[in-house]
Amino acid sequence: MPLRTVQQYKASLQDGRAVYFGGERVADVTKHPVIGIAVNHACLDYSLADDPSHRDLAVFNDPATGETYSRFFRIPLNSEDLLLRSRLIAETTRQGKTLVTLIKEIGTDCLFALHMIADHMDKHLGTGYLGKVQDFYRHCRDNDLAMSVAQTDVKGDRSLGPAGQEHPDYYVRIVEERADGIVVRGAKVHTSVTPNSNELFVIPTRQLSAEDRAYAVAFAIPTNTPGVRMICSSYDDSVPNAFDRPITSEHRMMETLTIFDDVFVPNERVFLKGEWQYAGPLARAFVEFHRFTAISYKLPLVDLLCGSAHLIAELNGIDRAGHVRDKLSWLISYAETLQAMTRIAAIECSMEAPGIAVPSTKLVNIAKLHFASNYHQALSHVQDLTGGLLVTAPGLADLDNADTGADIEHYLGGKKGVSARDRLRVINLISDLTTASFGGYQAVLAIHAEGSIEAEKITILREYDSAGAKSFARWAAGIAP
Ligand SMILES: Cc1cc2nc3c(=O)[nH]c(=O)nc-3n(C[C@H](O)[C@H](O)[C@H](O)COP(=O)(O)OP(=O)(O)OC[C@H]3O[C@@H](n4cnc5c(N)ncnc54)[C@H](O)[C@@H]3O)c2cc1C
Predict the structure, then answer these.
(1) Structural domain boundaries, residue 296
(2) Separation between Cα atoms, residue 108 and residue 94, nearest integer Å
């Protein structure tokens, strides 16, 4: 039965995986007070597929097998598939109060990219990768697996390639080739959802040269494979209540420093082994799908910034002021431009071998750059409209205290009829979203996740038809072509 239940998913994580949090090995990630929040957040993916009001979007029926699968595994064949994928990513993230679940999104982005690059390698080098990728895709789809992708290496000196580094382990590499597989060593960083995934993909992070051959490696392994150690980020180890932190009390994603301590990978799970010319194309193919995922999961975030700004302006009685309408109209344009760009990137897709619809790379990157480079301006407007209570408000315990609760109710109301409790709920939502640890997390996520802003600019310059534009300018200026 391809669709798993929440219980089956949780049980699959109780497998002896080596996860460390706050200096201690975690015995069971599903029962850990902080990682458990990330596990429950990821469960949204499975509960949505089981929910009659979301089921049509969350699953697809494959006439070829007669089975029903999670729609995330649908290989996009046209813009309609991409639009539905984008809608599903946005809806799951909306249920997660702006936090993406990622456990199927990122892995399928990687699977789509692996299909394309494996096909290309097989045709040009005579390798036999595509069949292995297709078998592995079916394994993930048919077992409804949660997946993480470790692409970003720790990288050491950013100006040097892997072979030029102070020591050889700043990028993951092959240290031994055996008849039945390879042994890999190194570390990846910022790997999202690893503590609660079933499969872990590893792919290169950059273009490589011939001397980097050992670093040209892509594979997938079960997350509990011996030698894999996951050291969780400590960015927020609090367990807040739902009043003070309406988002983070229920929704969280966990990143790890992911160590590969001489890990054995069997041949059937190896998708790149030394073909250094294909490291860059694989890295880019993954990132292009993943940036489409990114702009899709940013949509609920910009919507909530917009909605909460409108709401707090109303509760504070400032919604008719000129400067407020100016900021609200800026926020609407910011959000709606991203919405439109995401749709058009899906509509303007191209078909790539072996039959996969790829969203417009140029438009995806412009959309991502639009989102990321304006994100801090959006935060500034929302924080401006909300006021300083974002960081100075009393908490739930003060509201519930017999001595102080009445003071807070009496003094912290908004415009007529708006109770202090309701106003604080909205302020706490905006605080969680824009200031507290989650706000900081989202701000860094905006700048760096799915590649830094500079990487987006490089791609836009590469994808733009500058020759056509220059020839138009030459013609308009009246100079020879
Ligand atoms: C919350 C979060 C989740 C993430 N999840 C994942 C995940 O699941 N899987 C995964 O693989 N990655 C993940 N990432 C990693 C993300 O893709 C990287 O953060 C991003 O690519 C930037 O890399 P970096 O953090 O090493 O920063 P750096 O690469 O060090 O970037 C810092 C600055 O250095 C500049 N720079 C870097 N190299 C050069 C150079 N050669 N020349 C000039 N300038 C340079 C950059 O442009 C940037 O301005 C995640 C990141 C975040 C923040």
Answers:
(1) 281-471
(2) 20
Number of the ligand 1 atom closest to the C-alpha atom of 453: 47
pLDDT at 477: 97
Q: Is residue 146 part of a domain?
A: no
Q: How far is the CA of 264 from the centre of ligand 1 (A)?
A: 27
Measured in degrees and rounded to the nearest 5, phi and psi for residue 166 equal: -60, -40
Element (DSSP H or E) covering residue 447: helix 437-448
Looking at every residue in the chain, the average pLDDT score rounds to 97
The atom number, within ligand 1, closest to the CA of 149 reads 9
Burial of 263 (0-12, 13-18, 19+ CB in 10 A): buried
| CA pair distance 71, 40, nearest whole angstrom | 20
**Residue 139 covered by a domain:** no
- Total count of domains within the chain: 1
Residue 258 near residue 187, CB atoms below 8 Å: yes
- Phi and psi at residue 222, in whole multiples of 5°? -60, 145
Q: 411 exposed, middle or buried (CB, 10 Å; 0-12, 13-18, 19+)? A: exposed
C-alpha of residue 391 to centroid of ligand 1, in Å: 29
Q: Indicate if the alpha-carbon torsion angle 230, 233, 234, 240 is positive or negative.
A: negative
**Is the pLDDT at 221 greater than 80, yes or no?**
yes
Each residue of 143-152: pLDDT tens digit?
Answer: 999 999 999 9
Tell me whether residue 13 is in a domain: no
Going by C-alpha positions, the residue among 204, 195, 203, 202 that lies closest to residue 223 is: 195
Would you say 265 and 175 are in contact if contact means Cβ atoms under 8 Å apart?
A: no
Q: Does residue 1 register a pLDDT over 70?
A: no
Whole-number Å distance between alpha carbons of 236 and 241: 14
Instruction: Give the SS3 label for residue 76.
Output: coil
In a domain, 423, yes or no: yes
Report helix, strand or coil for 233.
Answer: coil
CA-nearest residue for atom 48, ligand 1, is: 452
- Beta carbons of 237 and 260 less than 8 angstroms apart: no
- Spatial neighbors of 123 by CB under 8 A, at least 6 apart, are 353
**Amino acid identity at 69:** Y
Query: What are the residues whose beta carbons fall under 8 Å from the beta carbon of 336, sequence distance 6 or more?
Result: none
Identify whether the C-beta of residue 106 lies closer than 8 Å to the C-beta of residue 293: yes
Task: Please give the backbone phi and psi of residue 188, each rounded to the nearest 5 degrees, phi first.
Answer: -115, 155
The alpha carbon of 201 and the centre of ligand 1 are apart by a number of angstroms equal to 18
Q: What is the CATH number of the domain that holds 317?
A: 1.20.140.10
**How many angstroms separate the CA atoms of 371 and 38, rounded?**
25
**Pocket of ligand 1 from Cβ distances under 6 Å:** 106, 149-152, 155, 158-159, 190-192, 255, 444-445, 448-452, 454
Q: How far apart are CA 211 and CA 209, in angstroms?
A: 6
Reported as a pLDDT band with limits 50, 70 and 90, residue 238 is: confident
Instruction: Report if pTM > 0.70.
Output: yes
